[in-house]
Amino acid sequence: MKLDKMNQYVRQMSVKEKSPLPNHFPFTLPIIQKLGKLSFHPNVTYIIGENGMGKSTLLEALAVALGFNPEGGSKNFSFSSYATHSNLHEFMQVVRGSNRPRDGYFFRAETFYNVATQIEKLDQEPGSSRRIIDSYGGTSLHEQSHGEAFFAAFMERFGGKGLYILDEPEAALSPIRQLSMLARIDELVEQGSQFIISTHAPLLMAYPDAKIFELDAAGIAETRLENTQHYRTMKQFFEDRGRLLHHLFQR
Ligand SMILES: Nc1ncnc2c1ncn2[C@@H]1O[C@H](COP(=O)(O)OP(=O)(O)OP(=O)(O)O)[C@@H](O)[C@H]1O
Ligand SMILES: [Mg+2]
Questions:
Q1: For a substitution probing ligand 1, which of 46, 47, 56 has the most ligand atoms within 8 Å of its CB?
Q2: For ligand 1, is residue 115 a contact (CB within 6 Å)?
Q3: Helix, strand or coil for residue 205?
Q4: What is the pLDDT of residues 108-152, one digit of tens each?
């Protein structure tokens, strides 16, 4: 059963206090200063925008506030390769629903390699009864291609009735795989899951029952797929590649 406004897992996020440390990252980011209240869609919410706008910072703060490891993984994962995460979560207000997810995952493309290494390490420790890698389909994530390993997480590890926070899940996926990912999202949404996804891929942004928030220097605004910068740039490319390249190369 799809989630709705009454039973979604996470409803809203906002920054609690106005710039407690105004001269320190992440409070220096315009997007954090102008965040206001972000109300999530019960099924799929996209957070999009240019490189460096603060999407990963926001998703990480949300994930950590909800009890996930800042480098990603499921809730019982706790490891750190680098202590680079921000303290934004301490100043965030996250409004959860009354319904608790049965599954959860914070997927970060940029640190998934570290999650894979951590799984191998834990599985080598004596005494653990069930191998973690079995919940990812059984094949070492390091022995699969970049995209195959991502896909193993989405197809095998994600189990439904879950809260899934994904940061650039398309990073290793071909266009066809991005569409398969969309189909997988639909399956999991039908099984009572909620997604919050940061992505640069217009294909992956196309889930029909979704909210899209676009971040830019002016702040954060809800928009529709056709109006996003990502979609418009791709459209220009497909409609008149010669013209776009002409401007690009200043010939
Ligand atoms: N630990 C840090 N200390 C200081 N500045 C940081 C830190 N981490 C990120 N930043 C800066 O904050 C800004 C936002 O970074 P963030 O990773 O959230 O961007 P993003 O929107 O996810 O970008 P991308 O699309 O490239 O993934 C960037 O300009 C970055 O340089
Ligand atoms: Mg990012």
A1: 56
A2: no
A3: helix
A4: 988 888 888 888 888 888 877 788 898 889 999 898 888 888 888
